[in-house]
Design brief:
- The protein is an alpha+beta fold.
- It has a single domain, classed as GMP Synthetase, Chain A, domain 3 (2-Layer Sandwich), CATH 3.30.300.20.
- The protein is 48% helix and 25% strand.
- It is built from 3 helices and 3 strands, in the order αββααβ.
- It has helices spanning 3-20, 49-53, 58-74; strands at 28-34, 37-43, 77-83.
Amino acid sequence: MSDAPVAGLVEMVTALAKGLVDHPDQVRVDADATGESVALELRVAPEDMGQVIGRGGRIARALRLIVREAATRSGVRVSLEIVD
């Protein structure tokens, strides 16, 4: 698997998360590629967790949907985990 789609997904998630939080300097996205799939871990400041998850998990679901769609277009299977 090429690193270009993974790097693009990491940049996209980072940009989206930085737009949601109060402490954009503490946003970090790690990628772990295993075979044909990629696991992305989004880390934000503890006080920003609610802004990334949203009421009832709506923002988290939307982020996962956007990432999954972008990954599908790149031919990569991806999962997004929001880590505290």
